[in-house]
Design a protein that fits this description.
2 copies of one chain form a homodimer. With 247 residues, chain A is α+β, with helices and mostly antiparallel strands. The first copy, chain A, is built from 5 helices and 10 strands, in the order E-H-E-E-H-E-E-E-H-E-E-E-H-H-E. In chain A, 38% of the residues are buried.
C-alpha cells in the first residue's frame, strides 16, 4: 500500500531532510522512526526534495510503502504520525497513492522561496526565517540579472560539489522578486534544482542587488561552469520549499 | 532629555514586560540594563502596556529620560540598544519626545490581537504564536457574544486579581473576528485593559465558539462581577500587543 503525504517542517533543528548514518536528526529519519515503530518492521520513505540542513518546508511531498498487514486509513496514519512526531514536523495531509507513485522521480517541478529581511527592518518574528541584509537592494538590477538565469542552462557554477557524471543542466521557469514592507522575497520555480542551487542563486542576486556585481555578469558566470565564479551561498534559514508539482 | 521608542519583542523567553526583583528576565529589565550601562547611572524606563509573561509585542511604546550629559542622537541610541539587546527584543524606532510625555499615562488606547489556530490546521510556523483549537469554532456566535462586550462595562469578571480600590470599568471600542485559511484572529481595541483581560475575553469567546456557552450569557457574566463566571484564561503565547494610541 503506497501512501502520499504532505509534510511541513521548521528545519532549524535538523540536519536536513535526508536520513544520515549515526545519530544526526533529519526529517526523513524522524518520520521513518515513527513509521518503523508503528509498522513493526523497518520502513523507508522517499521525499521529493532533499532540503539542506536548516532549510524549511511549507509543503514537502513524500511517499511510503506499508505492508498490507498494517491496514490503516490515511487519516489514522496521519493522526498517529502527528502524535509521535516532534511539533516542528507536521503531516498536513495523507492519502492513498497508486502503487507506482514515487514522490521524487515523478515530480515535474518545485517552487522555492527565499526571504531577505531589508537592511533597515528589525523584525523579531522574521529573524529565524530570513537573511538580514546590511544594505539596500536595487530590485531592478536583481530583476535584470534574474532574466539571464531563466530558461535552460548548465547551472554548474551554481552548484556545490557538482557530480562529474550527472548533468547539471536545469530549467528555471520563473524567478519572481517581490517587495513587501520588511522583506524582499525571491520565488524560484523550475524542473529541478542542484545541490545548494537556490542558495547560490540567491547569494549571487543579492550581490547584484547591492551593486557589487553587474546584472550582465550572469551569462559569463553560467558559461564558466565553476562554482567559484558565482556569489556566496545564502544562509539556509531563509529558504523554504514551498510546493512540489506533479503532472 | 526624553526619548520615545517603539519596541518589538518575542515574549516566549521572558517573564513579561515589567521589571521584577531578582534575576527573572523581563523586557523592561533587559532594556534598562543596556541603558544603565551606557549612561553610567541607573536608568528607568516606562512602557505603555505591561504585557504578561509569554505575551509578544509588535509595537510597544516606552519612554526614557536620559541625563543631558549623555548627549546622543535618537538614531545612535537605537543602534546602541539593538547592538546590545538580545535578538528577540528590537528597538524599531527612537525619537525625541516632549519632556512631559509619558508612554503609559498618555496612551489613549491599545490594540491587541489574539491568534487561534484552527483545529484542523497543523501549521508549524504558527505553533509558538497561536492557541491550537481542538474543535471547530462558530464564528457567528462569537461575533454575537462580542457585541455584548463592546462599549463601557465593568469588566471585573474578566480580570485576574482585581484591585478593590481601582475601577475595573473599561471601554472596549472594537472586537473584530477575522478568519484566515489557518487561523481565527481576535482583534481588541479599547481605552485600557485590566490584568489578563484580553486572555479571559478570548477564553470566554472560544467557549462560545465551541458551543459550551451561549452568546447571551455574556451580559450575565459582566453583571456577576466575579472572575469565576467568565471563561478560562487563554494561553499567553497567542497574544500580541499590536499598537498603542496617543492623541
Amino acid at each position: 500500500m503506497n501512501y502520499r503525504m504532505k509534510v511541513q517542517y521548521d528545519g532549524t533543528r535538523y540536519q536536513g531532510w535526508q536520513r544520515q548514518s549515526g545519530s544526526s536528526a533529519t526529517i526523513q529519519g524522524k518520520i521513518e522512526e515513527v513509521l518503523t515503530r508503528q509498522a513493526g518492521r523497518s520502513v523507508r520513505i522517499d521525499g521529493a526534495g532533499r532540503t539542506d540542513a536548516g532549510v524549511h518546508a511549507i509543503e514537502q511531498i513524500a511517499n511510503v510503502h506499508l505492508p498490507e498487514s498494517f491496514a490503516v486509513s490515511p487519516d489514522e496514519l496521519r493522526t498517529v504520525l502527528n502524535e509521535y512526531l516532534p511539533e516542528d514536523i507536521r503531516i498536513l495531509h495523507m492519502e492513498r497513492a497508486g502503487e507506482r507513485f514515487h514522490s521524487r522521480l515523478h515530480a515535474t517541478g518545485k517552487q522555492y522561496r527565499y526571504h531577505l529581511m531589508k537592511w533597515d527592518s528589525e523584525q523579531v518574528f522574521l529573524r529565524k526565517y530570513s537573511w538580514k541584509m546590511t544594505e539596500a537592494l536595487d530590485i531592478q538590477s536583481m530583476q535584470e540579472a534574474a532574466g539571464h538565469l531563466l530558461g535552460e542552462h548548465d547551472f554548474k557554477s551554481f552548484c556545490t560539489k557538482a557530480s562529474k557524471k550527472k548533468t547539471t543542466v536545469r530549467q528555471l521557469t520563473q524567478i519572481q522578486i517581490e517587495e513587501t514592507e520588511h522583506e524582499v522575497l525571491l520565488i524560484f520555480e523550475g524542473s529541478g534544482f542542484l545541490y545548494n542551487m537556490v542558495r547560490i542563486l540567491t547569494g549571487t542576486l543579492v550581490e547584484v542587488g547591492t551593486g557589487s556585481r553587474r546584472p550582465d555578469e550572469i551569462p559569463e558566470i553560467l558559461e564558466r561552469k565553476e562554482r567559484k565564479y558565482a556569489g556566496e551561498t545564502a544562509p539556509a534559514k531563509g529558504l523554504f520549499l514551498v510546493k512540489v508539482y506533479y503532472d
